[in-house]
Specification:
The chain is an alpha/beta fold and 365 residues long. The protein contains eleven helices and 14 strands. It has two domains: 37-239, L-asparaginase, N-terminal domain (Rossmann fold); 253-364, Rossmann fold (3-Layer(aba) Sandwich), CATH 3.40.50.40. The strands form three sheets. An eight-stranded mixed sheet has the order 2-1-3-4-5-6-9-10, sandwiched between helices. Strands 11-12-13-14 form a four-stranded parallel sheet, with helices on both faces. The longest helix has 34 residues, at 3-36. The chain binds succinic acid.
């Protein structure tokens, strides 16, 4: 073999070796970059974020909960830049059909995932109608300080300017953010971060519907970063006394709504059907109509816990204000709206029937 051929052959092997080394170092660098990203699991439950309409201008009358989690993730390739994302379809429902059983299953799955060292945060995609309830249930039952972010959308995935993709991107960013650790369960839509306890849906259809009206939201997501400005003083997650790990069912708690000319029909039906607790979403400061006092006292004598909340939506229901709660052995909901008071009372009833203890919980969570 001539010296020239030998030189050419060694050059080729050298070039091949270098190319291989380059490929290896690129994939090592890519793997290192991915290893630096947080690991976020997306648990999909349905809702409008997974909804589809007849055409791109359909923003009402669409079908919720039709798009699967893998498709939701694939629709936002930018997620890969901010987290290593895995998806799980937990349910596929419109959130008006969310039940206590769904909550128990979801909370158990969240707790199991967050106990894994390789999971840094959770995003739950959810219908907006009951997002505030699911988020508050998780706020009281998740046993981890790692971020849990509940997210939805007001427009179906097929709509012009659908808000689902940006909301999902922000939620994943937030769930992977160190700043979100220990903040309790968060609800994020419309570039805003809200605490599960304070947030409510305030408009039937606009994309800025989620507000923590008077107590205020926690922060914003802007320019690929979460900014926090405040935090709830109420206990959540690892600091609560509630443990759902062995529970398969929650006590029945129902809501009666206050209005002029209110009758006892709904209350009596709920008590007869086995309610262990009643939330009275009373008018004003949780006032009780004259004709409702006897039915509520009768219910209490049967062992039903009565909690006075307000239909107003903001403010404290004053203990011993519009009713003598000490004498009637009633509880007040503090600032919780009726639907969130229902959740706290259900969980409280898994621990005690003592109204003093239950009142303490309403001032704690
Ligand atoms: C739902 O809550 O599942 C329907 C409405 C929505 O997600 O916006």
């Amino acid at each position: 073999m001539s010296t020239r051929k030998l030189t050419l052959r060694s050059f080729h092997s050298y070039a091949l070796m270098m190319f291989g080394a380059l490929l290896l170092s690129t994939s090592v660098a890519q793997a290192q970059d991915q290893a630096k990203l947080p690991n976020v699991v997306i648990l999909a439950t349905g809702g409008t974020i997974a909804g589809t309409g007849a055409d791109s201008t359909t923003t009402v009358g669409y079908t919720s909960a039709t798009v699967g989690v893998e498709k939701l993730i694939a629709a936002v390739p930018e997620l890969k830049k901010v987290a290593n994302v895995k998806g799980e379809q937990v349910f596929q429902i419109a959130s008006e059909s969310m039940t206590n059983d769904h909550w128990l299953k979801l909370a158990k799955r969240v707790n199991a995932l967050l106990a894994q060292p390789d999971v840094d945060g959770i995003v739950i995609t959810h219908g907006t109608d009951t997002i505030e309830e699911t988020a508050y249930f998780l706020d009281l039952t998740v046993k981890s300080r790692k971020p849990v972010v509940v997210v939805g959308a007001m427009r179906p995935s097929t709509a012009i300017s659908a808000d689902g993709p940006i909301n999902l991107y922000n939620a994943v960013l937030l769930a992977g953010s160190k700043d979100a650790i220990g903040k309790g369960v968060l609800v994020s839509l419309n570039d805003q971060i809200n605490s599960a306890r304070e947030v409510s849906k305030t408009n039937t259809s606009t994309t800025d519907t989620f507000k923590s009206t008077e107590l205020g939201m926690l922060g914003y997501i802007q320019g690929n970063k979460a900014y926090f400005y405040r935090q709830s003083t109420r206990k959540n997650t690892v600091d609560t006394e509630f443990d759902i790990s062995k529970l398969d069912v929650l006590p029945q708690v129902d809501i009666i709504y206050g209005y002029a000319n209110m009758t006892r029909a709904a209350l009596d039906a709920q008590v007869a059907s086995g309610a262990k607790g009643i939330i009275q979403a009373g008018v004003g400061d949780g006032s009780i109509a004259a004709q409702m006092k006897t039915p509520l006292v009768e219910a209490r004598k049967k062992g039903v816990i009565i909690v006075r909340a307000s239909r107003v939506g903001q403010g404290i229901v004053a203990r011993n204000g519009e009713a003598n709660d000490d004498e009637l052995d009633f509880v007040v909901a503090d600032t919780l709206n009726a639907q969130k008071a229902r959740i706290l009372l259900m969980l409280a009833l898994t621990k005690t029937k003592d109204t003093k203890e239950i009142q303490r919980m309403f001032y704690t969570y």
